[in-house]
Amino acid sequence: MPDNSGTPRDLRATAHPLAPYGWDEHTAEAFAPYGRQGLVPARVVRVDRGRCDAVTADGTVRADTAPVASPDPVRAVCTGDWAALDPGTGGLPAVRALLPRRTAFVRSASSTRSEGQVLAANVDHAVIAVSLAVEPDLGRLERFLALAWESGAQPLVVLTKTDLAPDTAHAVADAEAAAPGVTVLPVSAVTGEGLDVLAAALGGGTAVLLGQSGAGKSTLVNALVGQEVLAVQETRARDGKGRHTTTARELFALPGGGVLIDTPGLRGVGLWDAGDGVGRTFPDIEELARACRFHDCAHAAEPGCAVLAAVDDGTLPERRLESYRKLLRENQYLAARTDARLRSELRRDWKQKQALGRHMMERKRGPRR
Question: Model confidence over 46-56: pLDDT tens digits?
């Protein structure tokens, strides 16, 4: 649809200087109110404490994130966010607002509190890198898939280091069985196998690269970007585990279109409100459950359980059912902890208000005789 200038909106979005970084019609509409306030659009490419690097129509700038700081980690500025930036007058530019996120990859924060942590925002593809230099951990892959589905992004499994794999075909078959409905691509940054297919799949959108240390993420980023933008270290020979090369989440533009967000290696990946994601990761079990005798079947020892019958006849691997149970228990436990935390915070807030009310009443009555 053309605007007052006669230029179609989609063409205006494509011609925007930030189009290579994902600027589109929807982003333009969300930013419009801030543009009328004299702010400029920017996409966050890296976040440090209290600061971020953001790309604008005039290039990358360093900006202050204090104006939008939040005690809730889920609301904190994150790589991939679209921001309304105050360019300032000689001082440090400042982020004045964040545009609503289309998608967000959230995991449970590594802390004693029930909090989430956003790893990447506004992503179209969640690329899960799994190294074939060692035996793949299918349970961990399913955990990543649950979070990827929950984020709203489309998962994509990339099996790296195929040049070191004794049997790539078998590894692909195992990954496809653990990721129903998800594309599995075997690639090698050394031989170039599969890189053109992967680049084509990521072109034109925003992708986040996830996986353990040693999965070859940094090498893969360098191969896709076409230059050495990240340092690379060798994995440990004794156990095949990697060393942390990437220390911060960073966004890179791809030469064929689209952008890629690299993330540090994740040793622990806790679920965060991922009930729907777990269901989409195990559609085979969800489908079997519909044939169980009882609608609330726990698939443990109930008579007429179609899921257990599938395990008995070999249709469903027992490992997969155990993984499903584990992720469901973890998600339910986290939900209970989160509710308890919210109740505790409400109770604490209520007590503070009661104490303030008593204090004000005492002041109104005056000193006791």
Answer: 999 889 999 99
User: When comparing pLDDT for 335 and 242, which is higher?
Assistant: 335
Q: Domain ends where: 67, 98, 129?
A: 98
pLDDT of residue 227: 79
CATH number, domain containing residue 94: 2.40.50.140
**Residue 344: is its pLDDT beyond 80?**
no
Which of 42, 69, 98 finishes a domain? 98
The number of C-alpha atoms within 13 Å of 84 and in the hemisphere containing its C-beta is: 20
User: Which CATH number do you get for residue 201?
Assistant: 3.40.50.300
* Apex 223 CA angle, 222 and 224, nearest 5: 95
User: 59-74: per-residue pLDDT in tens?
Assistant: 999 999 999 998 888 8
Q: Are 242 and 215 in contact (CB under 8 A)?
A: yes
Q: Which residue's entry shows tokens 């898939």? A: 145
- Beta strand pairing status for 59-64 and 82-86? unpaired
Range of the domain at 227: 104-262
Query: Using one digit for the tens of pLDDT, what is the confidence trace for 226-237?
Result: 877 666 655 544
Entry pTM: 0.83
Read off the pLDDT of residues 149-191 as tens digits, 9 standing for 90 and up.
999 999 999 999 999 998 999 999 999 999 999 999 999 999 9
